[in-house]
Amino acid sequence: MKAQSLFDRQTFIVLSLLAAAAILVPVMNGLAEPGSALHLSDHLVPLLGKYVCFALLALSVDLIWGFCGILSLGHGAFFALGGYAIGMYLMRQIGPRGVYADPILPDFMVFLNWKELPWFWHGFDWFPFAAAMVLLGPGCLAFVFGWFAFRSRVTGVYFSIITQSMTFALMLAFFRNDMGLGGNNGLTDFKEILGFPVQAGSTRLALFVFSVIALAGGYLLCRWVVSSKFGKVLVAVRDAESRTRFLGYRVEHYKLVVFTLSAMLAGVGGALYVPQVGIINPSEFAPANSIEVVVWVAVGGRGTLAGAILGALLVNAGKTWFTAALPEFWLFALGGLFVFVTLFMPRGILGAAGYLWERFSHGLRAGRSPEPVTHAAE
Predict the structure, then answer these.
(1) At what angle are helices 201-227 and 229-239 packed, to 10 degrees?
(2) Cβ partners under 8 Å of residue 323, min gap 6
(3) What's the pLDDT tens digit per position in 331-352?
(4) Which of 96, 108, 136, 266 measures 20 to 30 Å from 345, CA to CA?
(5) Which of 84, 127, 121, 126 lies closest to 106, judged by CA?
(6) Phi, psi of 334 (to 5 degrees)
(7) CA 296-356-8 angle, 5° bins
(8) What is this structure's pTM?
(9) Phi, psi dihedrals of residue 132, rounded to the nearest 5°
């Protein structure tokens, strides 16, 4: 793989498109007349915001899979943990708040006859604490999990299986009512975020813009990682792990760092996702969700970063259309898409487009070969 610079043409295009989305969506929602072709309805704004959060999740998977060869089938767990962290904050915003105010128990705790707020809920009434937990929750889990997995040299399909087992175990745990996190129903009925009504149109627009900014920041962070010396070692680990270890690099340390960073990015995506959809429940831990993220990355183009974003947006837009028009065929369409990409476009949409552009450019250069120089007769 060629070395990639931090600010190249692809980065310029991605950031330009994200900046355009952050500007056009509020303009089309607020200034365009309702009923016009340019108007963006209120229910579409959080839907687009959800797509952006999924793109950040796909970006986190591409960072470890595309550039380090770590195929994680459990990244939905980190996404869900970030969502639960911000969901706990949103639940604490219901009722009186302050130093001397008694915390109001969430509805599910009242229903289960809980007498007081569990110890691990304390602190979530303070936004900086909740924001820190968005990063520390997924990050600590990934660090501990990765420490034992990588130092034991678990790789390939075995690592994929244990990550899937991890997210399945978490799903079963969070379904339990005695976990104190809402059980099957999860956390919902949010009212405010930072003092602003969650359901207000202006709040939803602000969350969309913040999601786009987070995606742009995540993209720049990933681009910086893969274009650095650290990123070159990651690619070496992906292509020849044994040789890289033989050269003296502590491969497990590189894997652990990038895996933890990827989990924290996924947690940020989950934290921005929850206030826009209005609920977080254990179904977000479902292994099928993590597998679907891998499909997004494969469709867009593994190892490109921008392809992960493209794949997440396209596949989820298709999912929205299919589940509304032909809901019974969506899973067949998704599976067929993955098989098609694997067999005929192994480098994804972005990789195939780049290959075709190279062939086209090469054809143009070949067609403009210099004419032979002729000398006039003396």
Answers:
(1) 80
(2) 330
(3) 888 889 888 888 888 889 988 8
(4) 266
(5) 121
(6) -65, -45
(7) 70
(8) 0.91
(9) -65, -40
